[in-house]
Amino acid sequence: MPPAAIAVVRVSGPQAAAALQRLAGRLPAPRHASLAELKDGHGAPLDRALVLWFPGPATATGEDLAELHLHGGRAVVAAVEGALGAMPGLRRAEAGEFTRRAFLSGRIDLAEAEGLADLLAAETESQRVQALGLASGHVSRAVESWQERLLGLMAGAEAELNFADEDDVDVYDGAAQRLIEGMGALAEELGEWLARPAAEVIADGVSVVIAGPPNAGKSTLINALAQRELAIVSPFEGTTRDVIETPLALDGIAMRFSDTAGLRAEGADDIEAIGIDRAKAAVEAADILLWLGEPKAVPAHPRAILIAAQADKWAGDAASEAASARCDLILSAATGEGMGQLHAAIVEMARTLLPREGEAALRHRQRTALAEAKQWLTIEAGAREAGDLILLAERLRLASVALDRITGRAGVEDMLDALFSGFCIGK
């Protein structure tokens, strides 16, 4: 938003050429930046700007498109927008409309549009890399490959069903088994993609929950990690009564750290008991658990880091030293002891939740469609479809329809409204 060094105003559609001619007095050579004096309908000067002309269909939106690279002051932008708004056949773009026009004209597919939305919202390096892969068509190319394989299987089924009596069609016994084998191989590949981390882990951040008994140092730790006084620290049990969450980025990975109420079985009042219940729910939903209590009391969790906290207070406490021997690391958030090791341990564990380099993660919508396609391609042993080519062919068709929903070729109108409305006006 203005003010800025440069503001880009884009005009797309059948009136783009006329609008550019009225403002600049001419239509520049296609795809070449040209300096022009912009004037309104009364001949009053608006700005001295670079103008570009892109004739369709080889444009970002698939339509004729003009761009005005203006000086980025608010008054300049407002004056140019006012001059454009006064021209017949022009209106202000809605949020995400340029990207939606690109999708409707076939310049990008739905998966690429979702990647662009994620790229615009990216705040960390991992989010940027993931969104860029989606926007550049990583998922779309995979879907195209799967569709080609489905098409080959469907062609084989149709040949067997409709042309088995023709001499020039290559068919043979066991066609149904051949189809089932091909479907199974493709279903296995889809399953490998479904086993990858979900895109929401990257977009929303890895959930890291700090838990333990009262006065274990949980609030001190989250304050040290956030480098600010996020949670109240006191020597009284039950001070923290709710889940306190803060977003942080460690080594370019988005994370959500949560401080929780101290877990204890007795002595809690009604309000604190609610906080304890919420703490237990947070622990269950956590991607990574930082446990600051006795090692033997750690809740069952697949990714827990056992921390011997408040090491600065031990001073000959044999029990604390014995407990620390069974923990993953010794820590003092007050003095900074062990904070570097904790940082490294969290990042190392978080990387196991993210896609490997070169892998693309799927959004929830994409995962749902892929899971449905896999379901249609999976034939249980002894199922009645196993020997029926007509039913197998129908399963192949339904799997293809499910994959089409990933790239936006089928039944996505309501979802489009929700997606593109989240874009900024310039997109």
Walk me through this protein's architecture.
The protein is built from 15 helices and ten strands. The chain has three domains: 4-92, Gyrase A, domain 2, CATH 3.30.1360.120; 138-196 and 360-420, Four Helix Bundle (Hemerythrin (Met), subunit A); 202-351, Rossmann fold (3-Layer(aba) Sandwich). It has helices at residues 16-24, 74-85, 97-104, 110-121, 125-135, 138-163, 175-194, 199-204, 218-226, 270-285, 318-324, 339-351, 364-377, 389-407, 413-420, and strands at 4-12, 34-39, 45-54, 65-72, 206-211, 244-250, 253-259, 288-291, 304-308, 329-330. Mean pLDDT is 82; it is low at 167-173. Helix 11 (318-324) links the parallel strand 9 and strand 10. With 427 residues, it is an alpha/beta fold. Strands 6-7-5-8-9-10 form a six-stranded mixed beta sheet, with helices on both faces. The radius of gyration is 30 Å and the shape is flat.
Query: What is the CA-CA span between the terminal residues?
Result: 13 Å
Principal-axes geometry comes out as flat
Q: Compute the CA-based radius of gyration.
A: 30 Å
Within CATH, the superfamily of the largest domain carries the name P-loop containing nucleotide triphosphate hydrolases
Helix content range of the residues, please? 40-55%
Counting H and I runs of at least 4 residues, what is the number of helices?
15
Strand order of the largest sheet: 6-7-5-8-9-10
Unreliably modeled segments = 167-173
- What is the total domain count? 3
